[in-house]
Amino acid sequence: MEANRINIEKIKYYIDLVDCRSFTETAKRNYVSQTTISQTVASLEETFQIRLINRKKTPIEPTEAGQLFYEEALVLWKQYQGMQQKMRNFQANQRETLSIEYSAMTDIQTLLSVIPAFRKENPLVELNLNKVLLKNISEYLVKGIYDVAIAFDSEFEGKKEITTVPLYAGKYQAVVSAGHPLFGKDSVTLDELYQHPLVMLDPSVIGASYDLM
Measured in Å, how far apart are the chain's first and last C-alpha atoms? Predict the structure, then answer.
């Protein structure tokens, strides 16, 4: 496989296609023709000699290999964007960028309160906040895509290469309707909680925290 056969800019076409699940919407998002998106995917499949997209399903979805390619392409694309940002900063008075990843708005509420003071003490450092899936938090941090991550400490369980600093601690809350057997209780034990059906995010979204919770 020749490395120059893949245009890194066009990797974004594939990422958007998996996100949109539509050739038409992907083309609109990138201001190109639908044919361009189709040809790009066909070229990637030819390069790696494997089917990446299942076109028989509606909406379309990636194959198992296609999902793997998507996850790797996403890392590569974010690294490329980070490189671009660093080069732009270098040209503009050699400003530095501190890239911070988070998975929910609640993760950065504490951070927002200290940003003004940080900017005052570090005027040449530009903060770049990025929202990502919780399951990718630790992986992106280890690969150097982001400099700092703010998330549940459970996502960093067993990651010796990551240093964690607690920002705040709290208790989990169970949300139930007025007619639920647990309604009205000030607190519940895990045994009580697990006697009832639970609604949780898919493990493919929240990663290691799913099992630890």
Answer: 43
